[in-house]
Specification:
The protein is an all-alpha fold. It has helices at residues 7-17, 37-50.
């Protein structure tokens, strides 16, 4: 469904996954190229993992035809 690329498919996929997320928190990180988004995401994930938390990162490049 993700490779299909259609917004409807993506919405359907996310809607199906959402009930299984339990008490998941969603954090969005955005900004210009080179401002440290990846460094920030890596630091946040590392700290959360050190605290025994489960972490998932979904990275989207809006300028990519494959995102």
């Amino acid at each position: 469904m993700v490779e299909d690329g259609s917004p409807a498919s993506l919405r359907e996929l996310i809607s199906g996954l959402w009930p299984a997320t339990g008490s998941a928190r969603v954090i969005g990180v955005t900004g210009s190229p080179g401002v440290g988004k990846s460094t920030l995401a890596n630091s946040l994930a590392s700290r959360l993992r050190e605290a025994g938390r489960t972490v998932a990162i979904i990275a989207v490049d809006p300028s990519s035809p494959f995102s």
